[in-house]
Amino acid sequence: MTSSRFADLALVLVAAGWLLCFYGVMSQLGDPSPTTPSSVIEAHRHTSIAILLVGVLCLVSSLWLSGRSYVEAMKRSLMAAVLAVAPVVAAFVSLY
Prior knowledge:
Layout: H1 3-26, H2 38-68, H3 74-95
Helix pairs in contact: 1-2, 1-3, 2-3
């Protein structure tokens, strides 16, 4: 694969990673019904955590691919890196 394709893949992984992270976190919000068996709740929690970890893995892979493709595709690799890191930085800044 060329570095141009790596930069394109990094952009796709950023979008997929943030969507998966968002679903992994949001699916844990709220209280389950009191009649729901604990095994179902635990299975749902494990699924949500797995989706969240896949999303984080997509973001880390995107950062690696953007670093690998920086020399040939500067604009796309920088865009992927900023899109992967900027929401985290914005969240920390809003906390303080």
